[in-house]
Structures are given as structure tokens and as C-alpha cells.
Amino acid sequence: MEKKHKSGFVNIVGNPNVGKSTLMNRLVGERISIITSKAQTTRHRIMGIVNTEDMQIVYSDTPGVLRPNYKLQESMLNFSESALDDADVLLYVTDVIETIDKNEEFLQQVQKEKCPILLLINKIDLTDQAKLEALVQEWKSILPQAEIIPISALSNFNIDYVKQRVAELMPESPPYFEKDALTDKPARFFVTEIIREKILLYYQKEIPYAVEVVVELFKEDDEMIHIKALIICERDSQKGIIIGHKGQALKKVGAMARKDIERFFEKKVFLEMFVKVEKDWRNRDNMLRAFGYRL
Ligand code: GDP
Ligand code: MG
Ligand code: K
């Protein structure tokens, strides 16, 4: 007899920097979500799809939950809340570092959630047994319906067990996407994500949060991929910092990004980057829409 096909949505939620993107990449087995040590790296929802013969698991990585104090953050919060709506399994990620805020609005929404919740306590490589046990007890009282699994996404500890539990919790369903699909995001999206990651790593303070990256050209032939990317910032002073003395800063960022893009597509890449000032793009609805944020 033929085995019934299973498929479902697994949404990864939690506060910034607890390790959601690192976990997502472990679960999907490809480097599809960008990771840095700064908060707010993941602005959009990113999906990663794992296919086997009789199962399709659609993981999605969400931006960290943030209190909206300007329009961009409001839009990012929408992505997180929508992650609660369509989940078959919720992976609520916390770590051994963050202080638990029981009154947090998002946590209260999670408490009302009806789908199965795996509460993943990440970064256990940074703590000891006694502290971890105390943390487990605390979480048991906050989210009694959740199954608590201590993990280390970075050192790949207990990740196979998470995969196994997710697979067991998948409902019977035909696949939602083509079975050879890796992700729902097009190639250009990965280019902007990689460039943004390098900007986050290279520049200090407000620069990473003041910029948006747009890929204007993505042209592939047999030999190479030609990419033109635009870095949009808010002020002339920021443009100066991004470009740097004699263009050195932008050159470095471009070189780092190109290396990663080449590794991602396994192809030679010619990357051109330009910087443009668009005053207050973060507060302008039409600009945000053009960049793909849902408002
Ligand atoms: P996100 O904001 O929740 O998506 O978190 P990221 O995946 O971007 O990770 C934030 C930081 O935590 C990065 O510097 C990761 O390398 C680090 N990190 C993630 N998982 C672990 C872990 O298991 N152990 C340790 N020590 N660090 C981790
Ligand atoms: Mg992330
Ligand atoms: K992050």
C-alpha cells in the first residue's frame, strides 16, 4: 500500500538573536537565512523547504519580535504575527541568555496558540546542567502546553531530535510547493540578504538599520552572473560612510559579498554596487511597499 503524503508549515519565532536563523539553516541544511550577532537581521519571512519522498516540510524564519517604533518595525512585527496564523507546528526559540519577560505581548499570543509548540532552549553550550534545569522548570510554568527541547543550533546538538519531532507532527497533506523547490524566494532575494549581512558586519551603529539593498540587475550566462546592487540610505552623511575614504569601505563590503554570492550560486560573480540617498525611506509607505514589506 502507498504511504500517505505529509506536509505542513513549521514557523520559527522568538526574540532577536536567540538563534532562529542558525537553527533554520540547520533544519533545512542549506545556508539560506542570514546570520549575524546583531538583532533585526532577518526582516522578511524566509521559507526553506525540506522534501523527502513522502513528506514536505515548509520552515519559515521570521524577524525577531520587536516593539514597533517606526514603520519598518511595525511591518516586521506583522511578519511575526502572521507566523502564528498559518503554523502546523510552532518552534518557539529562546536561549539561555535572554531574560524571560512573561508579560511580553508576543509570548501571550503564543500561549493562546492551538498548534503543537516545541519550545527550544538554544545555546546550551553556554550554560551548565543546573542552570538549564532551572530554566526548563521556569518555562514549564509559562508554556505548559509546549514540549521543551534543549538544543545548540551552533554545535548541532539535539537538532536531529527536533527534526524527528517535527516530522512526527506533520499532518497528512499533499505538498504545498513543487517537490524540487528549495525556497519560495527568488535568487535576487538571496543576493540582497548576503549584501545586507556584510553591511551589518562591516558598519557600526545606525548604518545597517538605515539602509536597504535593491538588486537592479541579475543577469546570468554560462560563465558568470552579473549583478548590479543599489544600497539606499537616508542621508548624504551615511552615503559618505558607506562608500568610505577613496571608496575603500564599499570595496571591502563588495568583495566580501561577492565571495559569499559566488559560493551560494557556485558560479563566478561580477558585482557592482552603488549608493543612493532616499530621504526617510523607512517612514514612507510607498517605498516600503516597493521593497516588499507588507503594510
Ligand atoms: P536570530 O536573530 O534569532 O535569527 O539569531 P541568529 O541565528 O542570527 O544568531 C544570533 C547569534 O547567536 C549569532 O552570533 C549565532 O552564531 C549565535 N548562536 C546561534 N545559535 C547558537 C548556539 O547554539 N550557541 C551559541 N553559543 N551561539 C549561538
Ligand atoms: Mg534571524
Ligand atoms: K540576528
UniProtKB/TrEMBL annotation:
Domain KH type-2: residue ranges: 199-279
Coiled-coil intervals: none
Domain Era-type G: 6-172
Cross-referenced Pfam families: KH_2 (PF07650), MMR_HSR1 (PF01926)
Region (G5): 151-153
TM region positions: none
CDD domains linked: Era, KH-II_Era
Membrane protein topology class: Peripheral membrane protein
Signal peptide: none
Top-rank taxon, per record: Bacteria
Region (G3): 61-64
Chain positions covered by the region annotation G2: 40-44
Listed InterPro entries: G_ERA_dom, GTP-bd, GTPase_Era-like, KH_dom-like_a/b, KH_dom_type_2, KH_sf_prok-type, P-loop_NTPase, Small_GTP-bd
Gene3D superfamilies xref list: 3.30.300.20, P-loop containing nucleotide triphosphate hydrolases
Region described as G4: 122-125
G1: annotated segments: 14-21
Swiss-Prot/TrEMBL keywords: Cell membrane, Cytoplasm, GTP-binding, Membrane, Nucleotide-binding, Ribosome biogenesis, RNA-binding, rRNA-binding
Binding positions for GTP per the UniProt entry: 14-21, 61-65, 122-125
Location in or out of the cell: Cytoplasm; Cell membrane
Subunit structure: Monomer.
Xref: NCBIfam families: era, PRK00089.1, small_GTP
The family this protein is said to belong to: Belongs to the TRAFAC class TrmE-Era-EngA-EngB-Septin-like GTPase superfamily. Era GTPase family.
Function according to Swiss-Prot or TrEMBL: An essential GTPase that binds both GDP and GTP, with rapid nucleotide exchange. Plays a role in 16S rRNA processing and 30S ribosomal subunit biogenesis and possibly also in cell cycle regulation and energy metabolism.
Full protein name: GTPase Era
Gene symbol of the encoding locus: era
